[in-house]
Amino acid sequence: FYFLSYSQNSGYLEKLKTMASMEACYQGFDPVAYLHYNYTPPRADFEGRSSIVPWKLSCLHKAFTEGEGDILVDVGSGPTLYQVMSGCERFDRVILSDFLEVNRRELQSWLQEGKSSIDWTAYFKYVCELEGQKATRLRSVVSDVVPVDVHQSFPLSPEFLHPSGADCLVSSFCLESVSHDLLSFNHALDNISSLLKKGGYLLLIGALGESFYMGAPGLYIPVVPLDESQVCASLKASGYELLQLCIYHLPPDMKVGVDDVTGVFFAKAKKT
Ligand code: SAM
């Protein structure tokens, strides 16, 4: 684990170096370990009232019941599917995206062959209890699993998304865990906003108070520790109207040693 710092006065070269270090961190990312750290019990306990995954699924379910459109883009999908299980009902086309090929392969493997490193059945069952049939629908609407880099001004290739943008963006635990400081987080938020139509919705889920998470055994990835007011200020500065902000405070049994997260935010915002 190493500490990265970048002040506003640092030069362009310094910025490039820090971005390269962040990128280097991700070369050891292990989708299987990450899924087990975060998406199996106790964090994914569908019987437990206070478990973090059912909380996220319920937030997404409620947010998506109000929105619909043509294209939903998930920015920084990682190897996970839960974040589009509700959205897939409401959009004709879903684009999944990640910086790492190992994560895109993990998603393709589930989409094409039904194979994945963790069993998503309990997730589908939970969301189906909220909404109805799911896995077939998700397979039929995901049109692409594509590379993304939130540090680029237009993070997806225009061949996958028309410059007019998507109707909705979802992004979970991505921006704060790929940025080396708040300034870089804000730039990344501006960049992904270029993928969204004016009047479109952003569903942003992220970690609060987190300084690292484990991306593989022994791989400690630095995270920008955010607080609630910074999230609100960043959304406002990027031209969003904040419609909803929910906070989940991690109870002691969710602190399993794979990160130092203290809370999770769920924000629904409209691009003005
Ligand atoms: N969305 C998933 C979730 O909810 O668990 C994964 C989040 S994981 C903490 C962060 C993800 O960001 C990883 O899948 C990583 O490959 C991806 N990533 C790394 N660098 C990135 C970049 N420059 N642009 C977009 N995504 C990036």
UniProtKB/TrEMBL annotation:
Known Gene3D superfamilies for this protein? Vaccinia Virus protein VP39
Q: Which GO terms describe its biological process?
A: methylation
UniProt keywords (A-Z) are: Methyltransferase, S-adenosyl-L-methionine, Transferase
Give a Gene Ontology cellular component term annotated to this protein. cytosol
One GO MF term, please? phenylethanolamine N-methyltransferase activity
- One matching Pfam family: NNMT_PNMT_TEMT
> Member of which family?
Belongs to the class I-like SAM-binding methyltransferase superfamily. NNMT/PNMT/TEMT family.
Q: What is this protein called?
A: Phenylethanolamine N-methyltransferase
Give the species: Cyprinus carpio carpio
